[in-house]
Amino acid sequence: MSLLEMRGINKSFSGVQVLKDVSLTVEKGEVHALLGENGAGKSTLMNILTGVYTRDSGTVIFDGQELKDTTVRDSEKAGIAFVHQELNLFNDLTVYENIFLGKEYTNKLGKTDKKRMIKEAEDLFTQLGVNVDPRARVSELTTSQKQLLEISKALFFEAKLLILDEPTTALNNAEIEHLFGIIRGLREKGTAFIFISHKMPEIFALADSYTVFRNGEFIGNGKLSETDTDSIISMMVGRTYSSGDIYTPRETGDVVLKLDHFTGPGFHDISMEVRKGAVIGMTGLQGSGASELLQCMFGITSSWSGSMTINGAPVKHGDIHGSMRSGMGLLPSNRKENSVIPDMTIGENLSLAEQTLSSGKFHIRKAQEQQKYEQYKDLLNIKAVSSQDPITSLSGGNQQKVFIARWLNTGAQILLFDNPTQGIDVGAKTEIYRLMEQLAGEGKTILFTSMEVPEIRNVADICHVFYNGSIIGTLENDQIDETTVMRYSTNSIGAQQAGEESYEK
Ligand SMILES: Nc1ncnc2c1ncn2[C@@H]1O[C@H](COP(=O)(O)OP(=O)(O)OP(=O)(O)O)[C@@H](O)[C@H]1O
Ligand SMILES: [Mg+2]
User: Fold this and answer.
1) Among 98, 189, 382, 392, which one is most buried in terms of CB atoms within 10 A?
2) Dihedral angle of Cα 257, 260, 264, 270, to the nearest 10 degrees
């Protein structure tokens, strides 16, 4: 008997059917990958399983029991834990209070047993190798600590089935490996996992079996050992897919952007000259400085020394509006925390940056907003019903597409994209690279960060590898490969040789 059987599940949101008669079967002790493009219905099905949404029809059998009219509490009681795609923590509470919310331990006198909760949280973190203080306020944690807390929280109550909806988007490669170690250990003890991710290498490294959805329909399932990446992607996108490299060298113009011994929080002594129309990739382990550099260039933080000039004119530091007026745009990393304005519609979220840039000059009319929306919706294949719907009604990946459009839409000449393709499905990733190439061809200059080396190789003319706040290696497109990047990122190439190499470029 399977651990989980979901059959004939249907679900509509305000008349739009997003799940059509889908099924999902998960065996005990396996990692089951749930795959599909942005908006395919993965998170919705998980929300149904865990009682967040009610289904319109269909059957769910878990561990031999039929689950009917499930509430969140019911599913937890049955042994299902869910780590949501969006962070689901209370920022004003402490770490241990988040773990035990609604399940607080009490002592003999009926008072909450703070000591015991802190101790058990501490034990769990030690066991998992997670470096978080149970007494810290959640608002003080970094995004990756929050993500790890979410996962630890789910692990605490020893579920039979653990759902991880894109758990790795905010984690660095070492943290991902660590998480996979934990998952493999629990799998050995019989815990089953539903694992949702858009990173193919991750899926093949971890999962045993898969189910593919497309447009709210079940397409197929099977064992990962009996298939390959291209077949899986073909099932997801509904046509034959081959993952060819798309990079083609292109001409670049004069130097538009210059950093001279630029130093600030998290990075130091960065010097580079970037030509008009160039696409520059930046990578390194999380916290190694690339993302910090982009934030400082855009004025979110202030630089400490050195300078940045655009077309020869110095850019004032720590001044976001000034940066925008100099023609820069920033897509911040971590959509979950930095981009979404939940009370606004899709259309408003899309035109936000343009509104800010043009404030005082003219007001962007609704009609124009609508036209832009239509244009980007087609271009990036954004799965949305109306620009007037709230942004939160979109699937995670479709929200990210709106934020990419937000910056493509500003007319900014220098685009800073911090981890632009997080949570984006494979098909749309290719579209985004094409778009980046096209923009570069039109004379825009792009600096982007990514942890995924194949992505960088697809578009970047040059890749800077960061280590400990500075550039330790610079690679031309044809030199970019995973092994080289990893050796630089971990500083396992002789420091002197690497230093010389980065200095030359
Ligand atoms: N609360 C909601 N209101 C209206 N529509 C919704 C709501 N939640 C999801 N949808 C719609 O249901 C469809 C499926 O969304 P879902 O979030 O399940 O996709 P997903 O497969 O998880 O995609 P992603 O990989 O981008 O996270 C989308 O078209 C989405 O817009
Ligand atoms: Mg989702």
Assistant:
1) 382
2) 90
Q: What is the number of the ligand 1 atom nearest to the C-alpha of 41?
A: 18
Q: Ligand 1 centroid to 376 CA: how many Å?
A: 18
Asked whether 69 and 50 are in contact (CB, 8 A), the reply is: no
Residue 462 structure tokens: 């040059």
If you average pLDDT over residues 299-306, what whole number do you get? 94
Identical fold at 4-237 and 244-327+413-505?
A: yes
Taking the CA of 425 as reference, the closest ligand is: 1
**Short-list 293, 331, 327, CA closest to 310:** 327
Q: How far is the CA of 323 from the centre of ligand 1 (A)?
A: 34
Architecture of domain 244-327+413-505: 3-Layer(aba) Sandwich (3.40)
CA of 174 to the centre of ligand 1 (A): 30
Closest CA to 196 of 171, 155, 166: 166
The string of pLDDT tens digits covering residues 445-496 is 999 999 888 889 989 999 999 998 999 999 999 999 888 887 888 777 744 4
Q: Please indicate whether residue 409, judged by its CB atom, sits closer than 6 Å to ligand 1.
A: no
**Count of alpha carbons within 13 angstroms of residue 408, beta-carbon side:** 24
pLDDT in tens, 140-149: 988 788 888 9
The residue written with tokens 């937890």 in the block is 76
Q: Does 50 sit in the ligand 1 pocket, CB within 6 Å?
A: no
Domain chopping of the chain, boundaries: 4-237, 244-327+413-505, 337-411
Considering every ligand atom shown, identify the ligand nearest to the alpha carbon of residue 84 and give its number: 2
Q: Which CATH class is domain 4-237?
A: alpha beta
Is residue 321's pLDDT more than 60? yes
Question: Is the C-beta atom of 264 inside 6 A of ligand 1?
Answer: no
Give this prediction's pTM.
0.78
Element (DSSP H or E) covering residue 43: helix 42-49
Centre of ligand 2 from the C-alpha of residue 405, in Å: 19
> Which amino acid, 122?
E
